[in-house]
């Protein structure tokens, strides 16, 4: 008997027209034609079912939170997810609108929340990916890519310095390494640091034990929260978050990594704080990290004979939280000192 013309699973019985384990009779049509037709129909039905489910998910409306804060948290979560899906040209355009300083050597942007600086596992889009596009938007199609001068964590917002030339970037990096750049961060904390100003110098372990030093002062406070200015003297990874949480027992609002000593879990907030924010504890995991790189002061470099004072306003969610928690926004006087004042509605 000649071999069958299709490679169907199972064995053929010599001298018969049946397959072991087959329930089909080979009478009117060849077995392969029936199997192929059946497979095509099943595939079509499966594809139609998947398309219908996908369309249903698109059209299904999510319940709209009644609290303005919950709506804002939902918007921020959605925005962070969208950042990883936008086209690089769109992201570069958004960064260009956030430029706070530009000269022949440097470009300074206000880094948004949720955007990583470097690529890595699970990162679809980062700042380094769009530096060539941003350079072309600012200096034309023949422009060379911009260069990073330092880094900020994905969840941190604020001042970020870029350089046009690699050599200038190297010089600025050296200024950071030798601690010649003055850095000021703002953080909203859960609880109030005691004393209201001081220095934290507990070591931090990152591959090896390293000395870490942070100066701090409270700019505004209530019974349960505070706006704190931080000046890191050293530059250890997550230094500010560790020092506030474990050194002062005042974790940053939205820090779900360092708020608990024993386990990685969403930050637990007091009933009073939750009430002011208009949130339930079950939604606390969506609160973003309230850490903002507010100011950098670069010393004179190259042809620039004066220091460069770079200031970025905090993002909208940060300002909204200040207002909700009855904390006052600092305003700079003529001497450059921060003085607390009422938060304006945005």
TrEMBL record:
GO MF annotation list: pseudouridine synthase activity; RNA binding
Gene3D superfamilies from the UniProt entry: Pseudouridine synthase
Reactions accelerated catalytically: a uridine in tRNA = a pseudouridine in tRNA; a uridine in mRNA = a pseudouridine in mRNA; uridine in 5S rRNA = pseudouridine in 5S rRNA
PROSITE patterns documented for this protein: PSI_RLU
Keywords: Isomerase
Signal peptide residue numbers: none
Residue ranges of domain Pseudouridine synthase RsuA/RluA-like in the record: 105-245
One GO term of the biological process aspect: pseudouridine synthesis
Pfam families reported in the protein's UniProt record: PseudoU_synth_2
Family (UniProt): Belongs to the pseudouridine synthase RluA family.
Identification of the protein by name: Pseudouridylate synthase RPUSD4, mitochondrial
Organism the protein comes from: Neomonachus schauinslandi (Hawaiian monk seal)
Gene name, Swiss-Prot/TrEMBL: RPUSD4
């Amino acid at each position: 008997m000649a071999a069958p013309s299709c490679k169907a699973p199972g064995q053929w019985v010599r001298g018969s027209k049946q397959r072991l384990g087959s329930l089909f009779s080979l009478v009117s049509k060849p077995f392969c034609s029936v199997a192929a037709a059946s497979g095509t129909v099943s595939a079509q039905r499966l594809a139609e079912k998947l398309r219908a489910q996908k369309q249903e998910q698109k059209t299904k409306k999510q319940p709209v939170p009644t609290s303005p804060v919950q709506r804002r948290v939902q918007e921020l979560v959605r925005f962070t997810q969208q950042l990883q899906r936008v086209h690089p040209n769109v992201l570069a355009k958004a960064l260009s609108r956030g430029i706070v300083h530009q000269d022949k050597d440097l470009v300074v942007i206000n880094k948004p929340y949720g955007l990583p600086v470097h690529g890595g596992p699970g990162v679809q889009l980062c700042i380094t990916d769009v530096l060539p596009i941003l350079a072309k938007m600012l200096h034309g199609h023949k422009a060379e890519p911009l260069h990073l001068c330092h880094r900020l964590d994905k969840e941190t917002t604020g001042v970020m310095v870029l350089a046009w030339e690699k050599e200038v970037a190297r010089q600025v990096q050296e200024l950071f390494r030798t601690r010649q750049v003055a850095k000021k961060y703002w953080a909203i904390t859960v609880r109030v640091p005691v004393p209201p100003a001081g220095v934290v110098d507990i070591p931090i372990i990152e591959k090896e034990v390293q000395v870490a030093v942070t100066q701090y002062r409270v700019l505004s406070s209530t019974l349960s929260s505070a706006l704190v200015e931080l000046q890191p003297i050293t530059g250890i990874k997550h230094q500010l978050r560790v020092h506030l949480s474990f050194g002062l027992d005042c974790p940053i609002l939205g820090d779900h990594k360092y708020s608990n000593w024993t386990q990685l879990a969403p930050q637990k907030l007091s009933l009073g704080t939750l009430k002011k924010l208009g949130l339930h504890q079950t939604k606390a995991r969506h609160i973003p990290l309230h850490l903002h790189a507010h100011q950098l002061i670069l010393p004179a470099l190259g042809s620039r004979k004066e220091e460069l004072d770079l200031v970025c306003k905090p993002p909208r969610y940060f300002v909204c939280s200040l207002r909700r928690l009855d904390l006052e926004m600092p305003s700079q006087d003529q001497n450059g000192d921060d003085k607390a004042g009422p938060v304006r509605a945005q």
